[in-house]
Write a structure and sequence with these properties.
Layout lengths: L9 E3 H8 L3 H10 L5 E3 L2 E5 L5 H13 L3
Antiparallel strand pairs: 1-3, 2-3
Helix pairs in contact: 1-2
Length: 69
Amino acid sequence: MDKMKIEKNFYTVSELAEVLGISRISVFKRVRQGSINGQKLGRNFIILKKDIDIKKLFKIIKTNKEMPS
């Protein structure tokens, strides 16, 4: 019997943080600021894959890390 692989169409905050190489708190801040479009699901947030451009987020985060605080 073949096992079906089900792909989900969203990231959790933790998953997106890992993909981007930043902390969960940083993802939460960006969701709150609106630079990442997150959807509240119960007590948690999810980020729909169709709502984000990973390459664009990498550029934004890289630029922010290089800028002095």
